[in-house]
Design goal:
The complex is a heterotrimer of chains A (228), B (279) and C (340).
Chain A lengths: L1 H15 L3 H34 L5 H11 L4 H12 L14 H25 L3 H9 L4 H11 L1 H17 L2 H7 L9 H10 L3 H27 L1
Helix pairs in contact in A: 1-11, 2-5, 2-8, 3-5, 4-5, 4-9, 5-8, 5-9, 6-7, 8-11, 10-11
Chain B lengths: L1 H22 L8 E7 H5 L2 H13 L2 E7 L1 H9 L5 E4 L2 H9 L3 E17 L11 H11 L3 E3 L5 H12 L11 E3 L4 H10 L3 E5 H10 L6 E5 L6 E9 L9 H12 L1 H9 L1 E2 L2 E2 L2 E2 L3
Parallel strand pairs in B: 1-2, 1-3, 5-6, 5-7
Antiparallel strand pairs in B: 3-9, 4-7, 4-8, 4-9, 4-12, 10-11
Chain C lengths: L3 E10 L2 E11 L4 E5 L6 H8 L7 E6 L2 E2 L5 H6 E4 L10 H11 L6 H11 L4 H4 L9 H13 L5 E5 L7 H18 L2 E5 L3 H7 L2 E6 L2 E5 L2 E4 L4 E2 L4 E6 L3 E6 L10 E4 L4 E3 L11 E12 L4 E8 L2 E7 L1 H5 L8 E5 L6 E2 L1
Parallel strand pairs in C: 3-8, 3-9, 6-7, 7-8
Antiparallel strand pairs in C: 1-2, 1-4, 4-5, 9-10, 11-15, 12-13, 13-14, 15-21, 16-20, 17-18, 17-20, 18-19
Helix pairs in contact in C: 3-4, 3-6, 4-6, 6-7
Classes of the chains: A mainly alpha (228), B alpha/beta (279), C alpha+beta (340).
């Protein structure tokens, strides 16, 4: 099992020597996950907030659907997105297959339910007294929404991080939609899958370490928001 | 009703932000040739070696996704790629016959070998393919199959058929990995079993193991073990967007003097991996 | 012009009717107590008055104008202190100034925060920069009240402000409430179980039961079980084999609860044989308190698990014989019993 140790060593070597293949995969990973997270947060936080805050007919049904979507298998999402953006598919004209935005679409489908569901749960579990307190101190509608949103920020950051974790680690969509094309759509996870299939376990471990390192920096940045 | 308008505003904001993100960085590159190929051409490093040469010669950028031959053909059928480099003659002919592909051009071959642990528990070393498979079956020795409709898998099915043996699909010693070639070799090693591999991948495996591989070639040279690679251009008549002209260029270049020479010169550990044989 | 006017109010929670008021007027500049058992709709009424919730149906007029939640006039007029203490996860100072910030009154902040904190007995230097978690329950509730007082609201609504706080906090809260009324002319509505305080401070005490306003003054509620006395009467057995008799409940009295107003009960320090038997009950005088506004004495008479609320006119009280712990007799007319 010396490939474990080898892998740790190699991780540092790859990063310190500026290995272009590794950095290309890092760039691809960061790009797609940023796209996916930006869209997921922009759409998911308002939707999650609405789902958790407002009472409207059919809310429980929507909640059920969103919660079910939490279990979406990544390969299945990959297939669905492939069917959608394949040149024969309804969105084939856009030329999204084998591109980073294509992967980002799939990863958005993966992350969005997480942001919505956890966001809704956060807002739901906010003390009901918060609403009463804000109104009783004279909050207007907008101030009420912003006030609740602000008090819910810890939970929302947590929701974002959980979704981010799903996006960063998934391999099914990146493989199926991205095609694992070197220099273009090879992400860290598809690179790990490739190295592993080639029997290059140490390289796989090394890339896994690199992924963890990125995750570490992102979570540290997020925890700064939370601490505030 | 103010609440409703708040929700509507939120939706608008979301829609706009999604649209902005969706349209940014979307444009497709015009000089990119998209190819679907088998894992062996990628894993051996052949394509990494050929692509820059092709780019210099044609100005085109070759991009490829490496999968099993089955999925590669499927991508061709769905018009998602422009050209194929695959190694499954029967399936290829059917693909062309059905009108999905044109100009099937044989490019090169290597051969398949049956490898196994040096101890060779079923005693197949030096035997013919048919005898070896019969011996493995008789001994119930572990045999790891790709099981993924890849070129190698198709070849293996063909071998059982030629040897007039029923495919031992449900036997416990017959393992279907469902993974790429190198992963399958590693699995065979872990299970102390045999497997069928193309020589190119095996040489790469050998090189990775520093020339001292625990899995060795036991059966080779049989006429039935030839592994033919061909380029197929995806038919523009079926796929409007397919860049058939560029694909054609690639086929010509691969089967032309430069491509053929480069293939011949491609070595791993001092061993040639593919033999060019374009006519 | 009345401060509040409620018309045809019905408020439901999940289909359960929590409050139902056909018409009710509340005059400005007064302190009003709301009394009644748990679940009678007191807190619900307070939430509607505070425009925290919108009634399921009906209208509320504030200063003669039809008003709904989030109207600008509400924000400038009304402040509600809910029963559950809830502070933002910030310092005391930021909690107290929060309402001022929401109303865009930041320029007043510092003085108002200092004033409000001193009103509830929180030393500014000592408490202002404490985080929300470093407060006792009573202190936290005083901070919550200070946040309302900082707004100098024209209407101050307090929901059980002295329940579950320590004695010192309760005293500060009570004096701050009185200050708001006297110095700023704030109209105050208080929900409280603390009868003595309500009697002391309120111009009027309204009694609620099962989501209905029963009018002013205390009621004694008798929940049964009811046994038939004869064709027209039922009775409830009290301590010492005594019977509380009442006319047979009408069919619309779905709760089977009998109520008798404090004003309809007479109290004597000795038995009065002039009153016919079933209308006379003996109990123990358990408490007496002064209704400051009317000058009357409010007494409670215990009879086992039942406590009767009685109003003692000053002239009777002055004759003497009323000592807490002593035996007293109360009398009533069965026809005065109201069924719910």
């Amino acid at each position: 099992m010396d490939f474990l140790f080898q892998g740790f060593l190699q991780a540092f070597k790859l990063l310190l020597t500026g290995d272009p293949e590794t950095y290309s995969a890092v760039a691809a990973t960061v790009t797609v996950s940023s796209y996916a997270m930006a869209v997921s947060l922009l759409m998911g936080i308002p939707l999650g907030f609405a789902l958790g805050h407002f009472r409207f007919p059919g809310r429980r049904a929507v909640r059920l659907v969103v919660d079910t979507m939490l279990s979406l298998p990544t390969v299945f999402v990959g297939l669905m997105v492939y069917a959608l953006i394949s040149r024969q598919g309804p969105l084939g004209q856009m030329g999204l297959l084998f591109t980073l935005p294509g992967i980002a679409i799939g990863q958005t489908l993966l992350a969005l339910p997480v942001v919505i569901a956890l966001g809704a749960t956060t807002v739901e579990s906010m003390d009901a007294n918060l609403r009463t307190m804000l109104i009783s101190l004279g909050a207007g509608r907008r101030q009420l929404l912003l006030g609740i949103l602000w008090e819910a920020r810890h939970g929302l950051v947590e929701a974002g991080l959980t979704a981010y974790g799903r996006v960063m680690t998934e391999v099914g969509i990146a493989m199926m939609v991205g095609g694992n094309i070197k220099w273009h759509t090879r992400t860290i996870t598809t690179a790990i899958a490739l190295e592993t299939s080639k029997g290059m376990f140490a390289m796989g471990i090394a890339l896994g370490m690199v992924l963890l390192l990125i995750a570490f920096f992102t979570t540290s940045a997020a925890s700064l928001i939370k601490r505030k | 009703m103010k609440r409703l308008s708040t929700i509507i505003k939120l939706f608008l904001l979301m829609g706009i932000s999604a649209a902005v993100l969706a349209t940014s960085g979307w444009a497709a590159d015009d000089n990119v040739l998209m190819m679907a190929t088998t894992t062996s051409t990628n894993d051996t490093g052949l394509l990494d070696y050929l692509a820059p040469h092709f780019n210099k010669a044609s100005g085109l950028e070759l991009r490829w996704t490496a999968t099993g031959t089955g999925k590669a053909l499927e991508l061709g059928k769905n018009c998602d790629v422009d050209v194929l480099l695959v190694h499954s003659p029967e399936a290829e002919l059917k693909f062309v016959e059905e009108g999905y592909g044109i100009h099937r051009t044989p490019i090169m071959y290597n051969d398949f070998v049956i490898i196994g642990p040096a101890a060779d528990p079923a005693g197949i070393k030096g035997k013919s393919v048919a005898e070896s498979l019969a011996a493995i079956m008789a001994k119930k020795a572990v045999f790891v199959s790709r099981g993924d409709k890849s070129g190698t898998h198709n070849k293996e099915l063909e071998l059982w058929k030629t040897a007039k043996l029923t495919l031992p699909e449900k036997e416990s010693w017959y393992v279907q990995s469902g993974q790429g070639m190198l992963a399958t070799i590693n699995m065979a090693f872990e299970k102390k079993g045999y497997t069928l591999t193309d020589r190119g991948t095996y040489i790469k495996y050998e090189a990775d193991k520093g020339g001292q591989p625990p899995m060795v070639i036991l059966v080779e040279g049989d006429e039935t073990l030839r592994n033919q690679y061909s380029v197929i251009v995806v038919n523009q008549k079926r796929c409007e967007k397919a860049k058939s002209g560029m694909a054609q260029k690639f086929a010509f270049w691969m089967s032309g003097p430069q491509g053929q020479m480069l293939i011949k010169e491609f070595t791993q550990n001092g061993k040639q991996l593919f033999t060019p044989n374009a006519k | 012009m009345p401060l509040y006017e409620l018309k045809n109010i019905a408020h439901q929670y999940n289909g359960h009717l929590a409050l139902s008021i056909d018409h009710w007027v509340l005059e400005s500049g007064r302190i009003t107590g709301l009394s009644g058992p748990n679940g009678s709709g007191k807190s619900t009424l307070l939430k509607l008055l505070g425009f925290v919730e919108r009634p399921t149906s009906g209208q509320i007029f504030l200063n003669g104008r039809k008003t709904v939640p989030f109207d600008a006039v509400v924000r400038e007029t009304v402040a509600l202190l809910p029963q559950a203490t809830f502070l933002l996860k910030r310092s005391v100072y930021h909690n107290v100034e929060y309402g001022l910030r929401l109303r865009g009154l930041s320029r007043l902040t510092d003085n108002r925060v200092r004033e409000a904190m001193s009103l509830v007995g929180l030393d500014f230097d000592h408490f202002a920069h404490r985080p929300w978690y470093a407060l006792s329950g009573g202190e936290a509730h005083r901070v919550a009240l200070a946040a309302r007082l900082a707004l100098r609201p024209k209407v101050l609504l307090l929901d059980e402000p002295t329940t579950s706080v320590d004695a010192a906090s309760a005293q500060h809260i009570k004096s701050a409430t009185l200050y708001a009324h006297q110095q700023w002319g704030s109209s105050v509505v208080i929900v409280s179980h603390e009868h003595q305080w309500l009697h002391e401070i309120s111009h009027e005490i309204l009694y609620l039961f099962q989501g209905k306003l029963l009018g002013s003054g205390h009621r004694t509620l008798l929940f049964g079980p009811w046994l038939p006395a004869d064709d027209r009467k039922v009775y409830m057995l009290l301590i010492g084999e005594q019977r509380f008799e009442a006319p047979h409940p009408p069919p619309e009295a779905i709760h089977q609860v009998a109520a008798i107003a404090a004003i309809d009960l007479s109290i004597l320090p000795h038995d009065n044989v002039m009153v016919p038997a079933p209308g006379r009950l003996q109990g123990t005088l358990t408490s007496m308190s002064l209704e400051r506004i009317t000058g009357r004495i409010h007494a409670t008479v215990g009879m086992g698990s039942v406590v009767f609320h009685v109003v003692v006119p000053p002239e009777i009280f002055n004759r003497g014989g009323f000592t807490p712990g002593s035996a007293v007799w109360i009398s009533y007319q069965p026809d005065d019993v109201v069924w719910y």
